[in-house]
Design goal:
The protein is mainly α. 78% of the residues lie in helices and 0% in strands.
């Protein structure tokens, strides 16, 4: 049995375990170990040596300390009440429009994503804040839950983004370039969702009734309350890309700043601090278990030569690059049925990245292609969080929306999914959308 065949069999076994709901980290350990043992005729020496070195190399990697710091920043924002300030500011500005509070929820999710980096956390936090307001103002359950489930995905698209950090580590790409490249697609995503809401309430005004306008003094006061959050975002992103702070230093500054803002606003006290630290530790442990499992699987696949053989087969097959790319996009959408965004990135990038880098797209050089594919992969992974039947954001929001059937939430996200697909096509055929800022800042 050839190494490639062993690698394919191991990968098929992994997918079977995921279909049976085995934890992604455990499934990767089992699949990677099985591939090593099969290639080495049952000998454990190479497997144990590799696992020992991989675990040490991963856990001692200074670059990965950025992950718990960004998670801590998001925890401070969640437990410190910053989400309420963001929703209040957006609602004060546009809540008097038809569908305005739903649009404000999208804007608040985008702003919260700029200090959180997790879609599930963004959906859960903003759902708790915005859903009661939307329901109290007479918004339909379909529009309210669909908006929040879809807008929650902005948590990983608006930088800083934990999946983008992982992509950067896996591909040796610049975190700063990826963060900057995600800014314009993130803004387009938020504007696309706002446009969807506008179209929905135009066809059905009762779905999103307008609220009474607030005095300008209150609107201004609400905007001033979120200026510190905007400053944190600018410090983190500009600091990383401009070079005066590396990603870990910028994340440290951002986490400390979010903690101080939450404390000064009165939302952060001892119970919230303990909950933030506990939540960060729990999420970090889960991510690192998956990372080490992915390292073992990827090392085993490399030994089997399966990714290299696959890339060579695609390159020599004569298939148009766009056909290959859209096949990868289709696989991502299917994988969204069985795993979350981080697991998809860890599982697929070592396989798909060499394939994409071996093809020509619009004459792009290797760096531009790497950044472009990273943003594209992130956007497609984002769809997996909301597309029925098992999009995780759907369940998070529906659990918060008592009295709204899951069917209504699933139908509610459909117009937003159409916006997502149009945006993916736009990024595929106009790569400059995500590369323009990178080049403008001298990338």
């Amino acid at each position: 049995m050839s190494g490639t065949a062993i690698g394919l069999a191991g990968f098929a076994g992994l997918m079977g375990m995921l279909a049976l709901r085995v934890h992604i980290g455990v499934a990767m350990f089992i699949a990677g170990g099985a591939i090593y043992l099969t290639i080495d005729d049952g000998q454990t020496a190479a497997l144990l040596f590799t696992l020992n070195n991989l675990a040490f190399a991963r856990l001692s990697n200074y670059d990965l300390s950025v992950i718990p710091l960004f998670l801590l920043m998001g925890q401070f924002a969640t437990h410190g009440g910053l989400s309420k300030a963001l929703f209040r500011a957006a609602g004060a500005l546009i809540g008097h429009w038809r569908g305005g509070l739903a649009m404000a929820s999208t804007a608040a999710c985008a702003a919260f994503g700029a200090i959180c980096g997790s879609s599930l956390a963004t959906a859960a936090t903003m759902g708790q804040v915005a859903l009661p307001e939307l329901q109290a103002r007479g918004y339909s359950g379909r529009l309210a839950t669909g908006t929040l489930a879809a807008s929650g995905t902005l948590g990983i698209l608006i930088p800083p983004s934990v999946p983008l950090v992982v992509y950067a580590v896996l591909t040796q790409e610049s975190i700063g370039k990826l963060f900057v490249a995600a800014v314009i697609p993130g803004v387009i995503a938020a504007l696309g969702y706002v446009a969807v809401i506008a179209l929905i309430v135009r066809r059905n005004p009762a779905a999103g009734p307008a609220s009474a306008p607030l005095p300008w003094s209150e609107r201004l006061r609400a905007q001033l309350g979120v200026l510190p959050v905007l400053l944190v975002f600018l410090v983190v992103i500009v600091g990383i890309y401009d070079g005066w702070a590396n990603p870990t230093e910028a994340a440290s500054i951002g986490a400390a700043a979010c903690g101080l803002i939450a404390f000064a606003s009165g939302g952060m006290r001892w119970p919230q601090l303990v909950a933030s630290i506990h939540g960060t530790a729990q999420a970090t442990a889960m991510i690192f278990v998956v990372l080490i499992g992915a390292d073992l699987l990827n090392s085993a696949l490399a030994v089997s030569q399966m990714p290299v053989e696959l890339a060579a087969w695609v390159r020599d097959s004569g298939m148009p690059p766009m056909l290959v790319l859209f096949s990868i996009i289709g696989i991502y959408i299917l994988l969204g049925c069985v795993m979350d965004s981080l697991a998809m990135i860890l599982l697929t990038i070592p396989i798909f990245y060499p394939v994409v880098m071996g093809l020509d797209f619009f004459g792009m050089d290797a760096t531009d292609k790497s950044v472009w594919f990273g943003i594209l992969a992130l956007m497609v992974v984002e769809i997996g969080l909301v597309h029925p039947p098992v999009g995780m954001n759907l369940y998070v929001i529906n659990r918060l929306a008592r009295g709204v059937p899951m069917r209504e939430t699933a139908w509610g996200v459909m117009p937003f999914l159409a916006s997502d697909l149009l945006r993916i096509l736009l990024i595929v055929f106009v790569p400059g959308i995500c590369l323009w800022l990178v080049h403008a800042f001298g990338g």
